[in-house]
Predict the structure.
Amino acid sequence: MLAVFDRTFPVSHSFLERSEQTEGRQHLELLLGHPETLIAEFDGSVIGFITVDDEGYISALYVDPPYAGQGIGSALLQEAQKRHRWLRLHVFAKNVLAVDFYRSRDFAVIEEDSQIDSSGRRHRRFEMERRRT
């Protein structure tokens, strides 16, 4: 899973400093031991994963770039939705592909804030939510 993160993060978060990837990876290492983690595999290799806590908060959803656009992220999200009444997450506004992905799956922005990176740059961030119907 960490290898998928390492290949995906620089593409999806190219607007952040490299140190942010290191911090994100360290955070992910901690998360993988605690919340619910669903894994997508192909030929015995992890090609995507999602981590969701007991409250329905999605900390991570990553799909290996060669498999992007093939429905893997959607399948992971659907499986998580079966287990939780509602799902919530934060996503950077500059991560347009992710924002569009969630919007097309009925997630709505419920709040906006900003996060300051290690270089002192401010990045707009959305909190998004989807309720199971």
